Amino acid sequence: MHIEIDEISKLFGTTAALHPVSLSIPSGALVALLGPSGSGKTTLLRILGGLEFPTSGRVRFEGQDATGLTVQERRAGFVFQSYALFRHMTVFENIAYGLKARPRAARPPRAEIARRVTKLLELIQLPQIADRYPSQLSGGQRQRVALARALAIEPRMLLLDEPFGALDAKVRKELRQGLRDIHDETGLTTVFVTHDQEEAMELADLVVVMSMGRIEQIGRPADIRARPATKFVRDFIMA
Amino acid sequence: MSDATLTRFRAATEEAPVARWALIGTAVIGIALLVFAPMIAVFAEALARGVVAAVASLGNRDALAAIKLTLLIAAIAVPLNAVFGIAAAWFITKFDFRGKAFLITLIDLPFSVSPVVAGLCIVLMFGANSLVGGWLVANGYPVVFALPGIVLATMFVTFPFVARELIPVMIEQGRAEEEAALTLGASGWRTFLTVTLPNIRWALLYGVLLCNARAMGEFGAVAVVSGKIRGQTATMPITIEMLYNEYLSVAAFSMAAVLTALALVTLLLKTALEIRHADQLAAARHH
Q1: What is the distance of C-alpha A89 from the center of its chain?
Q2: Complex ipTM tops 0.90
Q3: How far apart are CA B216 and CA A107, in angstroms?
Q4: Which residues, 6+ apart, have CB-to-CB distance to B233 below 8 Å?
Q5: What is the secondary structure of B243-254 as a DSSP string?
Q6: CA–CA dist A116, A216 (Å, integer)
Q7: CB atoms A88 and B284 under 8 Å
Q8: A149 to chain B, minimum CA–CA distance in Å?
Q9: Which residues pair with A58 in a beta bridge?
Q10: Given this model, what pLDDT does residue B48 score?
């Protein structure tokens, strides 16, 4: 799905988290929002997901105004920084949550839900953990379950907030490839937030470098490396 | 030989045996003197003239009315305060707004205001001489010296218990799970029922039990608004006081024993639930 961000700004009280920013994300792209903490990247992601509303500006999905759509109407698969798995539910119940939450008319029958959950567990290569609770999983397993739960609702886009932030280096490398594979397989427009320039450069088709609530540069990883647009970008990608 | 003595390390958090036993001993003596001895004394006094006398003192019409009234008040006040407490905790922890600190202070107000003052406030507001109270009495709905006043007084005094238990738990759990449920398409109400409520159920249970114990035992505020009409507005604590003042010590202590037993039952209930769901409790904590 094509996403267009048109002059979006966000004020928290009197502090500006986002100065008006504009960005066009082509359908099926894998985009990284890259920047240090406080750069506004998470705020922008949450505005896309409908968890925050912009102070001014519009969001458009496939050319249609989506600014006023509620979080439920957006159908964005969202993976949270700390995964936010439902701690009192098993992995199966976590992944099935979005399907069971649908209105009765659109809710798949029980057997169909079970079939889809099983398929998603195979997709994240954890077929045997359906009955476990989140507290019994490793960090990497939790991240993959969170991804499966987000994919279960057949989302129109995938939004990930620091998806690899809480993992050790080895697991991080594996899961990076895992996300790339899932993106290529599903073809979903995917936006992820990271402060790790290596991660952004290695994984994304398009990197958006942000600082202090502004977009510093938008480009393919190779182009940004070859021609950093500002001093900030040069310093940040060298670090 | 000297190697053996050298390798006897002690954990950093471990105290010397003398200190350990001194601390445990002090705690045991304190609890025995302050908690167990008075409770045993209550039951001993109740049974001073035998079981028959104790049971007989509870069998009269006024005593039964007092027990019924106290249970009825708890049955009305506790569920209402549970709902208000959940609503207040939900509002305070899941939303950002101006005046949040003020609202939290306001919730604590019943803890700092003397119950007698609270009772007087209700008399002033709803008494027959007040504007609202006069109208209510004229229309046949007296509040003061009647059930509604006692319920109001009880609710005022026990309001903070549920909210106070829930707010720290809900702050610690954050909003991420609720946000996740919303992004998965769940409505606000469904999110509350399937995500928030299961996550806070232990804190809620604890708050409700404390609220219940206090609601049944409340004396000061109820004493002011009830009018102490025997068989009508005299709750168990008020009946106990009246009986004691009339030197009917077996009757007073028998009623006190029943009140204590009710409190013990709620505590046993909580412990039983904790044992039965120990695995879930542990899972929730370690997340």
Answers
A1: 23
A2: yes
A3: 46
A4: B69, B145, B146, B147, B150, B226, B227
A5: HHHTT-HHHHHH
A6: 41
A7: yes
A8: 8
A9: A6
A10: 87
Average pLDDT over residues B109-127: 91
Q: Check pLDDT > 70 for residue B286.
A: no
Between the two ends of chain A, the Cα-to-Cα distance in Å is 33
- Tokens for A47, please give them: 């505005």
Mean pLDDT per block of 10 residues along chain A (239 residues) reads 93 90 94 92 94 94 92 94 93 95 90 94 91 92 94 94 86 88 92 92 94 93 92 87
| CB proximity list for A104: less than 8 A, separation 6 or greater | none
Radius of gyration of chain B (CA): 24
Closest CA to B81 of B143, B1, B155, B3: B155
Phi/psi at B247 (5° precision): 60, 25
Please return the burial class of B76, using the count of CB atoms within 10 Å of its CB with bins 0-12, 13-18 and 19+: middle
Residues in chain B: 287
Chain A residues close to B280, C-beta within 8 Å: 88
**Secondary structure in 3-state letters for A180-205:** HHHHHHHCCEEEEEECCHHHHHHHCC
Give the start-end residues of each E strand in chain B. Answer: none
Residue A7 parent element (H or E): strand A3-12
At a CB cut-off of 8 Å and minimum separation 6, what does B161 contact? B81, B85, B207, B208, B210, B211, B214
Q: At what angle do helices B61-94 and B51-58 cross, to 10 degrees?
A: 70
What gap in Å lies between CA B44 and CA A156, rounded to an integer?
71
> Pairing relation of β-strands A206-211 and A189-194?
unpaired
**Helix, strand, coil % in chain B, rounded to nearest 5:** 80, 0, 20
DSSP A54-84: -SEEEEEETTEE-TT--HHHH-EEEE-TT--
B116, B220 contact by CB (below 8 A): yes
Report CB contact under 8 Å: B280, A88: yes
**Angle of helix B61-94 versus helix B236-245 axis, rounded to 10:** 140
> CB contacts < 8 Å between A and B, how many?
75
String of DSSP letters for B162-227:
HHHHHHHHHHHH-SHHHHHHHHTT--HHHHIIIIIHHHHHHHHHHHHHHHHHHHHH--HHHHHHHT
Partners of A88 on chain B (C-beta within 8 Å) are: 198-199, 280, 283-284
Give per-residue burial for B260-274: e unless 16+ CB within 10 Å, then b.
bebbeebeeebeeee
A71 class by beta-carbon count within 10 Å (0-12 exposed, 13-18 middle, 19+ buried): buried
